[in-house]
Amino acid sequence: MKQVYIINENHPQLLLFFAGWAADETPFKQYRPKDMDYMICYDYRTLDFDYSIFNRYRQVNVVAWSMGVWMGSLILSQVPRDKVFSLAFNGTTYPIDNLEGIPVNTFQATLDGLTPATLQKFLRRMCKDSNAYKAFMEVTPRRDFDEIKEELRLIQERYFDLFGDANNKSYDKEKEDKYEANIEKYNYEYNYAFIGKNDRIFPPENMEMNFCDLIDCHPVLTDNAHYDESMFRFLLQDMWEMTASEFRYHVKTINIE
To answer: Which domain of life is it from (predicted)?
Structure first.
């Protein structure tokens, strides 16, 4: 995993952003959270992570998007909660799952059919409309195609190794015990989960299933697409200028439930 500082000015707080699959810092480097250092994580071909950042800062604020919601949960479940405030956007903690993530067959079809042309179709589906897609193409990630295809394959491989394949109905007690232990080990609840009802990558109803019955998580239904620049501007910049009461009020205004 790559960890790239966008702002590194020894602030007491860090904004830690777990981006999605195939991402890099390009679409997100223009944001400037107030009075914080700012780090972007991407390239999930490995789980390597420098945990020392949690000792370096008084407070670590986390935003996780898409496949980064799962990756963030693997990392955050291993650190104390008392100095972390976390928000998820358009992703789940079980990202390859028929009920709580991207359906297994859909994920497999995406991986099997991935070409430069189908990648562009995927990126188009992330965006709300042609104007949003055109704007995203101005800041699209600059990564090698073979690298991001390998990343998607390794995400699937690692997820199935940790939590099992929902389409594999064969029973193996040793594997089932391992999966149960990993579910407990990597269990994590975000403070807020923003669920875009116009998401065409993660089914909104599956995101609701993932978040809506949790004890400590506050799910918020919005009208956002999977990639939505206005939401990133809020999550990665504007909200950090708000007081806690202003943030709660804003969340109520964008909740379409």
So the answer is: Bacteria
- Tokens 């986390």: give the residue: 62
Q: What tokens appear for 25 in the block?
A: 């810092």
pLDDT of residue 171: 78
pLDDT at 215: 83
Cβ neighbours for 133, distance < 8 A, ≥ 6 positions apart: 123, 124, 127
Q: Are 69 and 18 in contact (CB under 8 A)?
A: yes
Phi first, then psi, for residue 15 (nearest 5°) are -95, 115
- Domains of the chain by residue range: 2-254
**Length, in residues, of the chain:** 257
Residue 172: band (very low, low, confident or very high) from pLDDT cuts 50, 70, 90? confident
What pLDDT, on the 0 to 100 scale, is given for residue 121?
Answer: 97
Evaluate whether 206 touches 101 at the Cβ level (below 8 Å). yes
Residue 104 C-beta-side C-alpha neighbours within 13 Å = 13
> Mean pLDDT in the chain?
96
CA pair distance 209, 58, nearest whole angstrom? 33
pTM of the complete model? 0.96
pLDDT of residue 226: 98
